Amino acid sequence: MAGKLRDLDGWLRNRLRYCIWHDWKKPERKRKNLIRLGVDPDHAYAFSRTRKGGWELLRVRF
After folding, report:
1. Which of 9, 10, 50 minimizes the C-alpha distance to 21?
2. Residues 21, 54 contacting (CB under 8 angstroms)
3. DSSP string of 22-45?
């Protein structure tokens, strides 16, 4: 049971990250918010301009 709850918790956290990412909408807003969260500016720019969807992008840990 603990393993299933851990998997569910991981999925829910990823879904919440996706919803926040999707809510930011514009690349410039994504870049600024990533920098505020502590991502270095070069990586923030690359992540904000990617054509991958939010769900795929969030597999990569910042």
Report:
1. 50
2. yes
3. HHH-SHHHHHHHHHHTT--HHHHH
Overall pTM surpassing 0.70 (yes/no): yes
62 in a structural domain = no
Residue 33: which of 17, 21, 42, 15 has the closest Cα? 21
Quote the pLDDT of residue 33.
95
Distance between CA atoms of residues 25 and 22, nearest Å: 6
**Domain annotation covers residue 47:** yes
Q: How many domains does the chain have?
A: 1
Show the tokens assigned to 54: 């939010």
Domain that holds residue 46: 2-57
